[in-house]
Specification:
Layout lengths: L7 E5 L4 H8 L9 E6 L5 E6 L3 E4 L2 E6 L5 H8 L2 E9 L6 E14 L2 H10 L2 H5 L7 E14 L2 E6 L1
Parallel strand pairs: 1-9
Antiparallel strand pairs: 2-3, 2-6, 4-5, 5-8, 6-7, 7-8, 8-9
Amino acid sequence: MTTQPTPETLTELKINDALKQKVMQAYVPNDLPIMVAYVDEQGRPGMSYRGSVVVVSETQLGVWARNAEGGTVSALAKNPNVTLVYREPTPDHGRSAAVVTFRGKGRVDNSEAMRDAVYNTMPQRERDSDAEKKGVAIIVDLESITGFIPGYRLQMTK
């Protein structure tokens, strides 16, 4: 019987290289879009899968919203609270190899620098879906990251 090494528990709110790799490779090549949850203008929960989630700093995620007036964008004006969930199944689809919950405040950032940072970093197939770059960059200022990835337990809070 082999024992698994005890994973390191991370508590500082900071996206490390291992976690960054999970986010940046979630959709391409792994076909694991990240779920984004928000509260709509009527106070109802809303969710959508996004292939455009990228890491923009150690404490921020970026999401490209192709529809600048869509549900997620309009919801943020009233309630900026968002949750993003990444789940990676094991090869046999039994237990999860990784589950990460990101919580924070989302906001639209129309600066050309941030629009370029998110748009140019997301997977090509997402850029192809908005080739005219009509969408907007949503920046999520993280308040917590919880869950686990191989080698790490995540209990990070601001």
